[in-house]
Amino acid sequence: MFLKNLTRTEKLAYLFLILVYILGIYFANTNLTFFDEVFTKEDDFVEYGTAFLLFCSSILLFYRLLKLFTVKKIFWKIGILFMAAVFLFGAGEEISWGQRIFNVESSEYFIENNAQGETNLHNLVVEGKKVNKIIFSQLLTLILVLYLLVTPLLYRKFDAVKKLANLFAVPIVKWHHTIAFLLGTVLLMFINSTRKWELYELAFGAIFFLIFLNPFNKNIYTSN
What we know:
two-stranded antiparallel ribbon, 9 helices, 2 strands, 66% helix, globular
């Protein structure tokens, strides 16, 4: 019954993530070197896949903004523009804004203050602390918990929350999105490598694209 309620795109996306996780768990437990240096290495399938999915989410949001620009109110436009910009930023950060693709050297500032010497913000080190750990890990974890678990409950129960979310074009997750995130989190326990977070980022990109594509409150993307 659960699978029948999924669209074809959702089924394919979840199947893709299941296969990636199965391979990841297998390689991490049979050949950790291969997992770290091939399967999840920088500038390859997993990292580029994450950047691509984040970029697709951004493009989808920008498309809806342009399509409905004349019929939606200012707060809706602000909300969807903000989310589109955030995901575009995330896609750029994931590949260090194409630095390695185009073989661009980092400036002196990033060489001295970036943990990997790259031109991105999430690997910056400020007073001995990585920005990635403080903001992109701890803060993002809190946001995800609120967004995936708390917000859907409040949206379904309180009209005020429902109106506010719809006003700012905030997509509300369906429960299969939440389950997918939780399952992806649990499966990381079977991977003993710091590179496992690359798989988690890929799952993040895929699931959020599905959320934007077909949220619980899909009516926010109509002209009504």
